[in-house]
Amino acid sequence: MTLYSNVLELIGNTPLVDISQLSPNPSVRIVAKLEGQNPGGSVKDRIALYMIEDAEKNGKLSSGSTILEPSSGNTGIGLAMIARAKNYSLNIVMPENVSRERRQALEAWGANIIDSPGSQGSNGAVRMAQRIAKENPEYVFLYQYGNPANPRAHFEGTGPEIYRDCPEVTHFVAGLGTSGTLIGVGSFLKSKNPDVKVWAIEPPSGEMVDGLRSLDDGYIPPIFVENNGSDLLDRRTIISPRESIEWLRKIASIGIFAGISSGAVMAGAARCAESISEGVVAVVFADGGWKYLSTGAWSDDIDLVVERAKSIIYF
Ligand SMILES: Cc1ncc(COP(=O)(O)O)c(C=O)c1O
Q: What confidence tens digit (pLDDT) does each residue in 87-103 have?
């Protein structure tokens, strides 16, 4: 056992678990990286730490600074945890219709929440934060959608960890939010084996799977453009909110309690496994299920869950 000197040392090095019993193809193994095991509860702890330490290194962030970020949830939580541990103030801009759990988690770590119009979703929060950043140049605007430290966290952390634990990986499947996970892990795995295929999971345009976005909705993250995301991705797969919930339940049936985007990613991994004759598919389960309990995703009538998810941003 290791004695850690602070909570930030617990970020990363998450477990990779064989979940091949969910594979629809007996010749295809599926392994899942359980990012919910990070101390803030999601994959976003990694990029929050990288973005903050990068800003410290280049002199943008120092004692007494205030950080500003529009967050669809997990990044806000990761930043709140790290900002608290490092004693920075944090302003989070987010849609007013987010779930109660989300607000409470941010408040637990002392973040200040700025509401953006619920009807404008996470794109509205991004626009509002950009305006606030312009009006308050003293704020440190980390902006996960355009910050190179985001894909770097995955190129130097998540990717090498997957390769270390499963060098035989042939396919990588992950959800697309900022695209940081896909760009960072995808380019690392391809640098080790150019034959590795990278699949992005997106919701249908105009529909919502918490944490994910459709590139067809009109916003392409700058990190996706700057890293030639279109060349890196071998496939973009659309998964509906209903399929996400169906697969979330199958994941739970083998004892893994993951968040809703993990259901979408698993649905994509199953499609991937069906489309190949043999191989090893690695997936990222971005967070645990705790924050989504009020969706009723595991137990309520599935039509009701899908309908409810349209009006509330859970994460
Ligand atoms: C729950 C969840 N899943 C998946 C993602 C996608 O990750 P990335 O932003 O690296 O594309 C996010 C990002 O916001 C998320 O919050």
A: 999 999 998 988 777 88
